[in-house]
C-alpha cells in the first residue's frame, strides 16, 4: 500500500485529509516540519501533502531539507 504523509499545523485539516485518504492509502500525519522530516526518514512516504505556512519552519524550508 502506498503511503501519504500529511503535514499541517491545523489538527482539523490533518484529520479531514486522513479520513478521506485512509481507505485507499496508508496515511501518516505530522503537525510541523520537524515531525515531517522524522517521518520521512523513518517511513519514506510516496507522497507528501504539506502546508506552506506553518510556525517554525515553513513548508518550503522543509522541502528544501
**Spans of at least 5 consecutive residues with low confidence:** none
User: How many strand elements?
Assistant: 3
What's the overall geometry?
A: globular
* Spatial order of the strands forming the largest sheet: 2-1-3
Mean pLDDT rating: 94
Largest sheet: number of strands, sense, barrel closure = 3 strands, parallel
Question: Structural class, judged by helices and strands?
Answer: alpha/beta
**Which percent range fits the helix content?**
40-55%
Describe the structure.
By secondary structure, the chain is of the alpha/beta class. Helices cover 43% and strands 22% of the residues. The chain contains 3 helices and 3 strands; from the N terminus they run βαβαβα. The longest helix is centred in the first third of the chain and has 11 residues, at 11-21. It is globular, with a radius of gyration of 11 Å.
